[in-house]
Amino acid sequence: MASRYHEVYDGWKRDPEKFWADAAKAIDWFSPFDTVFDPNAGVYGRWFGGASCNTCFNAVDRHVAGGRADQTALIHDSAISGTIRKFTYAELKREVIALTSVLKNRGVQKGDRVIIYMPMVPEAAFAMLACARIGAVHSVVFGGFASHELATRIDDARPKLIISASCGLEPGRVVAYKPLLDTAIEMSRHKPEACLILQRDQLRCELRENHDIDYADAVARERAAGANVDCVPVLATDPLYIIYTSGTTGQPKGIVRDNGGHMVALKWSMENEFGVKPGEVFWAASDVGWVVGHSYIVYGPLLHGCTTVLFEGKPVGTPDAGTYWRVIAEHGVVALFTAPTAFRAIKGQDPKGEFVPKYDLSKFRTLFLAGERADPETIKWAEQKLNVPVIDHWWQTETGSPMTINPAGLGLLPVKYGSPGVPMPGYDIRVLDDAGHEVPRGTLGNVVVKLPLPAGCLPTLWNADDRFRQAYLDEFPGFYKTADAGMMDEDGYLFVMARTDDIINVAGHRLSTGAMEEVLAAHPDVAECAVIGIADAMKGQVPLGFVVLNAGVARDSGAIETEVVTLVRERIGPVAALKTVVTIKRLPKTRSGKILRGTMQKIADKEEWTMPATIDDPAILDEITAALKGRGIGF
């Protein structure tokens, strides 16, 4: 079908308020809004002022009442424990109400904060929805996060209660959560009143008397007593949740999401951007601790009346590189959203895609990639093996849903490799130089969004309006700073090349490490790669490449490194000045799959560095250090 994108985007530009008012009709409101957008409220304005609503009502209750009671709402697929649990919308409502009753009996009410420190279990989603049901503000902290990181979030959010579990499951190991949680509470100045603990059979924990409550026991008691808790009306502008991102100062930034604008934006995105219909099965292979998990495991699919998959496993090793195809086939998934890292891992283990034909993927329509730059080679590999559109898109924790995408629901536009698509309604994206002037099309600069930000974006940071202004609004007045560098082409497609701190300055030339990584990834023997800028006395900075080779590659790594250097010279030119590429066994990553380039750069530059709290496996940094030392770098 011909794409309706330009017509829809132009319609938003002509009359933004009408666009969002129309989108808001898809949400059930308890009382209507006085204004669609009030430019005088909050830091830069607020959406749907005066309206009252409830996110849990829209995600659960209205579907039960509206004919979806017996439709599966949530599938928990644990590839690690080998178990599958399914919940219909009616069962989901029962679970959420019972848990809400537990919270209410512990004195949790509208406006109180609750920290959720959980593994990938259905109870994590129940906890989010239970908080939303009574207007409590949840803050999900990635399960297994280090105690110090959890403590900083406890002190900032000041939760009345913490909901956690005895353990999380990783391939080949069980992570005990309770000691991490207890240590965090010891370290924090603020002390929560109680902890609700889900005991998992893989590793049970001791519960502290008069402080820890057994989750299953407490919920079962409420269910047996026939507990019923109605959804509490909250203002559209009231906070639904706080999600923390790492701050450059070490103090995490508490990004606030409101109730009204968030629902409107997510509901609109499910159909128009992701092209998914109510009743279909949608799978975001992320973690509930990250924004993708909030938006597209829990809230987006449930607001839209879909079936959502909550997956506990990894793209490889649980048990093999065919896990994703098994989940898609078994549950009839129509669209998968994951990080490019996952596909690079699958491609590295199964370069020929031999697992794909073993599964029935006939219902599968679209693959969406986001979270980091999707290199063209990975996209082409996925297109070729899966024979479906592969859609790169771009957004941030701050925005809550895509800023740019190739919108499947409005009709796909031509694909441009390396571009995460075109701006979505609500986003007037510009590219500015450091002085704040717009640069010509095709020129690299700072990617910014003209204010106001659309419905669903952060209105501010938790208890930190000044920090919000300083972090996002002050540098380019009238614009929101994304801290990404990129360029816009003649057709309005955005190319996001790197975080602005990943633009390196080689002898006065501003070069994108993302562009170099694209070239490295194009080598047939390379599974994954990273490029960082390291200090150089002559040129200021020079690039240094790291490559991980495909499984089964038996060639001499030195020869491959030479070929990769030559390739960069051919495709980007001598100006790139990439002379050194180091072969390593694996790249250091966060648990959400982002490559820790900053830490690698500090090791190479012999700078002080601290172990990143989000690192998946700390041993990898020793491997990197040893590999660099072998080349005379960083010691």
TrEMBL record:
Residues 516-594 form the AMP-binding enzyme C-terminal domain. InterPro entries: ACAS_N, AMP-bd_C, AMP-bd_C_sf, AMP-binding_CS, AMP-dep_synth/lig_dom, ANL_N_sf. One of its GO terms (molecular function) is propionate-CoA ligase activity. Keywords: Ligase. Signal peptide: none annotated. Residues 64-452 form the AMP-dependent synthetase/ligase domain. Residues 5-59 form the Acetyl-coenzyme A synthetase N-terminal domain. Its EC number is 6.2.1.17. GO terms for cellular component: intracellular organelle lumen. Belongs to the ATP-dependent AMP-binding enzyme family. PANTHER family: ACYL-COA SYNTHETASE, ACYL-COA SYNTHETASE SHORT-CHAIN FAMILY MEMBER 3, MITOCHONDRIAL. This is Propionyl-CoA synthetase.
